[in-house]
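Regression test attached.
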Amino acid sequence: MIRLSREVEEAIRSRGPVVALETTLVAHGFPPGEGVAVALESEQRVHEAGALPATVGVLDGAVRVGLGEAELERFTVDARKVGPRDLAACVAQEAIGATTVGGTLAVCRAAGIGFLATGGIGGVHRGERLDVSADLGELGRTEALVVCSGAKSLLDVPATAELLETLGIPVLGYRTDTLPRFYSAAGGPPVSARVESAAEAAGIARAHWGLKRHSALVLARPPDESLEVDELIESALSEAEERGVAGPDVTPYVLARLHEQSGGRTQAANRKLIADNAELAGEVAVAYAGG
Ligand code: PSU
Ligand code: MN
């Protein structure tokens, strides 16, 4: 049920550096044409770091690990958003499934991939209704290092940081003492440890797993340029609430609204940080494989 591309299979077998990439952001995080461009750019940055990208998604009744451009295009038309609990139904019903961070981590565990890159992880949503991303549950049980720019800023970032602590997940700040807030570098809660290099992060991952901690580690890289969009986020969230947008639809709705309202600035920032995170994940995977 899990089909690896030949390159990915070979790299995993020889314990080479492999970085998993998710497809939810390709399908639901950007307008159709741009999602594929973001995916290809991320793959290229992983390559430039000397690692092999393995983009994950569900197609034709199988979980696919390592996708080509023509396959990526298929995710832009009516793909389901596939978290960990949705994988089985998506495979069995032969639907097209764009995997979230949580869904991708579940596949990493099954396939033996130790590194993943994304823009922002899911977490605890704001507001009264309980909505906690399944990304957190999978981070709690998957031995993988996830490079991101913190949690998406439409979330309750301090509550998300607390839950990461509860789950025993190290939150490493890449040249920062605080958890980035996706579009902005500053103002987030403290990280559990600061690192200065990819090699240092790889060393901590090795020690964590060597100590039989069977969880993920988050490596949080601040965006190079910060955007102040807190007010836009507030208004997009109340709009979502008024329109009855809930559950898995909240994230794509708010991201699209922000992209519109900021005149494309959030989209450009989102794209850049995803690609930068992909390269850093490649560097950590290379350091880990060589060390
Ligand atoms: N990061 C981005 N854009 C996205 C997402 C993350 O820059 O679209 C996606 C990821 O796939 C993440 C998902 O796993 O949003 C979380 O959604 P939810 O809060 O519904 O679990
Ligand atoms: Mn949710």
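Expected vs. actual: identical. The first helix runs from residue 6 to 13.
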